[in-house]
Write a structure and sequence with these properties.
The protein has about 550 residues and is of the alpha/beta class. About 30% of the residues lie in helices and about 20% in strands. Strands 5-8-12-16-20-24-28-32-36-39-42 form an 11-stranded parallel β-sheet, with no helix packed on it.
Length: about 550
């Protein structure tokens, strides 16, 4: 509103911008160094004595300006039809705190400049706060301020420390391209829906402790020059750190993400740590939490860590993981308990593409994680990722591709062999699969050899009485221990029990396959001889697969080698 003093010519302050040309309606009581006449609100003193004059005159004149604006929040029926107190371009003196603890009328502080020690402690901005392109020379405090209808600090510059401790923002808080040249503190701050730090610059430490972020909190293209600390903060659905730059270090400690979050393209020049609570809800543990960690650029991957974090709904596409530290994390699993990554993030949701390219990427992802845990001598965890790596390779080989030729057939043939390796050797990491394969083969062979029959070749007169059937054309001490009839020289061995028959068949099988010598036995039939020859090859091969599985699973001989 215009000042009614007519003793001085009008203030010559002008401002041009996309808001239009701004002309000050107040009288020009002071003359600046350049010769222009300026009002008390736009005058910037040059000398210390003038600074004292500015301080002594500004606050009472500003109080008068607010009073003449005629805004009373407690008076019913007040309607200014969208009018706002025009404070654009004002030069506020040092230690300005007139608005502390007060209800601030709807006002525009565009391009305003605040001296050292400006305070808005416990101020209530009933009509919102507009500090577009404002400049705060030194420390400024908005502690316990209430921005009921949101606030905008777009393009503002904080020369020293900026404190927003326990401040409360309604719907909409804009810090687009805001510059914090020194520390920025947000302790216990509450943001409603739609807080935007896009393109903001934090030159020094930025601390967000116990902050409540509503839906759609955006830090896209934000630059953190020094340490960025997010401690015990809560992000509702929609936390965007796309293309953010952590030039020094960043830590998300015991924070909670309850919905989608994106760190796609994030750059970390130093350490980057995600650490959740060891008990209770883990970070990224929300029911609809989908986290995008794709294409991250990590200058020091060895200083990146995930501890007590839920990684079941996260995509790492395009991010190098071979040196990142993972401790007490929850990996995605299928119903059988095997690792199964959900795919890439598209439009905030997972998109599972069963094609060759997707399976190739998943195979590479598991390979990186396997190498990661092997380097840390965590062979049990590395074994799980080797299983997933080989499984993705097998599935890729089984895919039929249009127009494929011999190469496609060869791929599928290798995939079939991998399937056999999976069944018999557990991809060299599942000791149970290798042992189970060996056990089943032995039991089946002993059972078949008992049917087919074996001869006892050593003279043992004490045993011949129980087996009256001699081998055709052989010595009386050659006995058939089989129960399969119809072959030359075969008999039913009616006096022999099944336990005796399978005992000798088992002894023959173990000696023949394990020791590679038949001992005092030989197979009675051609089929039995072929089966024994097959077991002489299969048994040591399966023992080798068991050895490799134990070696990979538990790091036997690998630790000594390293």
């Amino acid at each position: 509103m215009a000042d009614e003093r007519n003793d001085f010519p009008g203030c010559e302050f002008t401002q041009k911008g996309f808001l239009g040309e701004r002309r000050c309606p107040h009288p020009g009581e002071f003359k600046e160094l350049g010769g222009r006449r300026l009002c008390i609100f736009h005058w910037e003193p040059e000398e210390a004595g003038e600074l004292r004059t500015k301080l002594g005159l500004f606050q009472p004149r500003f109080a008068e300006l607010v009073f003449r604006f005629g805004w009373d929040p407690d008076k019913p029926g007040v309607d200014l039809s969208g009018l706002r107190l025009d404070c654009r371009g004002f030069v506020f003196p040092a230690d300005f705190d007139y608005l502390s603890g007060r209800t601030v009328p709807p006002a525009d502080f565009h391009y305003a400049r605040f001296g050292a020690g400006a305070r808005f402690t416990r101020s209530s901005f009933a009509g919102g706060a507009r500090f577009h392109w404002a400049t705060f020379d030194e420390n400024v405090s908005f502690d316990n301020a209430d921005f009921g209808e949101g606030a905008s600090f777009a393009g503002a510059i904080f020369g020293e420390g900026a404190s927003f401790d326990r401040a409360s923002f309604g719907v909409g808080a804009s810090f687009i391209r805001t510059k914090f040249n020194r520390r920025a503190c947000f302790f216990g701050t509450r943001f409603g829906r739609g807080v935007i730090f896009d393109g903001a610059e934090f030159a020094a430490n930025a601390t967000f402790l116990g902050v409540q972020f509503g839906e759609d909190a955006s830090f896209e293209r934000t630059r953190f020059g020094e340490n960025a600390l997010f401690v015990e903060s809560v992000f509702e659905d929609g936390a965007w750190f796309t293309d953010v730059a952590f030039e020094a270090g960043a830590e998300f400690c015991r924070s909670e993400f309850r919905g989608s979050a994106s760190f796609e393209g994030a750059q970390a020049g130093g350490s980057l740590r995600f650490s959740g609570a060891e008990t209770g809800t883990r970070m990224f543990g929300g029911g609809k939490c989908v986290v995008n960690l794709e294409n991250m650029i990590l200058a020091c991957p060895g200083e990146v860590s995930f501890s007590s974090v839920n990684l079941q709904r996260i995509s790492f596409f395009g991010t190098e993981l071979s040196k990142i530290s993972f401790e007490r994390v929850s990996w995605p699993e299928d119903k059988a308990g095997n690792l199964s990554f959900p795919g890439r993030i598209d439009a905030g949701a997972f998109e599972v593409r069963p094609g060759v390219a997707s399976l190739t990427w998943l195979e590479g992802l598991c390979r990186q994680l396997r190498e990661n845990f092997e380097a840390r001598q965590n062979y049990t965890e590395a074994g799980e990722f080797r299983w997933a790596e080989m499984e993705y390779r097998r599935r890729r080989g089984l895919l039929r591709r249009q127009g494929e030729g011999i190469a496609g057939l060869r791929e599928r043939a290798w995939a079939r062999l991998l399937g056999l390796y999976r069944m018999l050797g557990g991809y060299g990491v599942r000791t149970g699969s290798a042992f189970k394969g060996l056990f089943i083969a032995l039991v089946a062979t002993i059972f078949l050899q008992g049917f087919l029959g074996v001869h006892h070749t050593a003279p043992q007169p004490t045993l011949t009485g129980g087996f009256p059937c001699a081998r055709s054309g052989g010595s009386a001490h050659f006995r058939r221990l089989g129960i399969l009839e119809g072959e030359a020289g075969a008999c039913s061995n009616a006096k022999a029990s099944l336990s005796e028959i399978f005992y000798h068949a088992g002894k023959f099988t173990l000696m023949n396959a394990g020791l590679q010598v038949p001992g005092d036995y030989e197979a009675a039939t051609a089929t039995g001889r072929g089966l024994s020859l097959l077991m002489r090859v299969f048994f040591p091969l399966q023992l080798f697969l068991m050895f490799m599985a134990v070696r990979r699973r538990f790091g036997v001989f690998l630790k000594a080698k390293q």
